[in-house]
Amino acid sequence: MCKPTQDQLPIWNLNLAAGSVNRHWTRAFFRGGAYARNYGNANPTYLYLANYSTTGRELDTDVIPYCDWLFATRLDSNPADRTVVLPMPPGLDGIGNCERINFILCNADGDVIEIDLDSLGLTGTLPASFGAFNKLKNLYLRENTISGTLPPSLFASSELKNVFLGKNFFTGTIPCPTHPEPVLTSISLERNSFTGTLPACLFTEAPYLQTLDLSYLDLDTTIPNAIQEATELVSLTMRHAGIVGNLPQEMKCNDKLQWVSLERNKMSGTVPSDVVGGMAALYELGLSYNDFSGPIPTIPNTSTGFRHLYLDHNRFSGQFQTQLEGWTANLDASTSSRLYLDHNDLSGPLPTYLYDLIYDAHGINSLAINENHFLCDQQRGDWPAWVFRVGTGAFGVCTPLAMVTSATVPNPGSIVVTGANFVASPELKCKLINSVTSVATIVNAAYRSPTEVECIAPTIAPTMTYAVQVANYGTDFYSPALAGSAYVMRSVVIPADPARTVTTSFVASGDVSSYTAARQAAMRAAFAARAGVPLESVVLSVTAASVNINLEIVYPTATAAAGAAVALTAAGGAFQSTASLQAVLRNAGVPVTVTEITSAPQVVQQNLSSGTVKEVLSLGGIIAIVVSVVVAFLLCLCASTLIQRERAGKPVFSPVGGGVGAVKPSATATSSSTGRSTVAGEHKL
């Protein structure tokens, strides 16, 4: 695994005074460049400067095959005469004292308890004989060129606490701890070529694990739910490690986590607020350069030590007027903090606590929220004035509010909205606010131009007037809250799809004033339940002249509407009779008498361009019309035939049969161009 880089190695003299560069090899001299003839710190008294030149300051020390440190102690020499090199070195064969090797520590019994061989150019693979170090506590092999898989025996020691193998060329999968009672507290395998998944055993079989670093690996894995069992975990670092999937809900159980670094992976989904809140000891959360979406998480004010938040380069969207208030409240001038939210899809106005964060002696020393879609100040048409006091570099360019000037319904299912500042955004939305219920429905919109978008009209609601608002980025709707004094409500009447609408009316006892809003709501709920449609799909109106009650129910499909029109009047239907309808109302808490069903349930037909409504005939009426049309067509066909015969000079009517009065055709024949004879007077078809 290690051999001298030169045939002529320096001979160290242990009899020299302590601190002499020629007494024996030391890490301090090595790192300081005392052994390097081409380095500014070379020690001129070093006897082997001409042929033994190396330093720990190279740009990439782990690729230098430098193992002379191991032979510097002259374990391969004769103890009586260090100038005599033996062919079989006794020191590594159990004859010598392990403490004579730099970076090897032993206990009083001579057992190796620490191996610290960082940055020493080791190459080759790790042997399975590592299991012989059954008292090993600390293993440091970072920044070498060791390759191959990790032998399971590496974790065999019952006292092993720290394993640091970063920046090598290890391959294969990450092994599990093998000792039945492991005491591992730190595992660092970063900058290797491990593949596969992140084994759950790292969390289930290492109950004392505090630090885990798996950055810059070639994994393809989610974070296992078993991470919740690592209750002592303090630091989790997996940058650019091939992590996919969501941030697991189970991480809210890791309440001792202080550092979470998951940057530059392929994680997605939302970041649940309860997970972030559950990690109450957080100091730093790094989720940059992933594919997270949805709102940014809410940071509770119970996370008193939380200072660094990195959510940049994701797809977080929406506003964050309140999510970071708790985080901001815990900052003070005595500590530094960082907030990176840049390169997302955040929108809406700038939160006011950003002003507080910058001006009220908080310890914020780095802020980046550029490359988002925060709104311009409506009065200025630019950032608020306070932004200019710190400069706009951290804020980028603001986005004008989408303005609405009019809305029309050119055809069913479509609303064309005109205005200004529309953007071709994948989050382009329309908000339709019901003028009666004030319920808001958000639908997708299609970009046509900076002054025009097309919204998808609701297809299950009845004819209704809606206030129309547009948002370029999902939540920044043209509204009184954002437009201020410039807001003017724009409305549109959206007709229901006639093929899916059933109307009916009836007369009930009482007067209009007795049908309070609560009573009408109960009636609507009863009819919605009987029809199997949402409450908002039922419109009920009450007018005078006795009490006339008109009902409109919108069904999901035309087929459902046609079927309902029949079912409502069939046996067991609500409109089978006045008695059955009266029972439905009484069960809904409306004890009135139904005196007449003035219009049976039926599907209506509506002309959307004119807004007129006309009733469709009943099934019997439709059949009668069809029969009449067929009879009229046949009569017209017969009349046309008779007229043609009369114009041709042919008899309109001919006697039937050969009895008296029958006209016998003439025997005179005329030749035709086809050579066939045609009887005179015969009508050839």
From TrEMBL:
Residues annotated as transmembrane: 616-643
Keyword Transport: no
Biased segments, Low complexity type: 666-685
Gene3D superfamilies: Immunoglobulins, Ribonuclease Inhibitor
Keywords assigned: Membrane, Receptor, Transmembrane, Transmembrane helix
Protein name: Phytosulfokine receptor 1-like protein
Keyword Membrane in annotation: yes
Residue ranges of the region described as Disordered: 663-685
InterPro entries named among the record's database cross-references: Ig-like_fold (IPR013783), Leu-rich_rpt (IPR001611), LRR_dom_sf (IPR032675), PGIP (IPR051848)
A Pfam family this chain is assigned to: LRR_1
Compartments it resides in: Cell envelope
UniProt organism field: Chrysochromulina tobinii
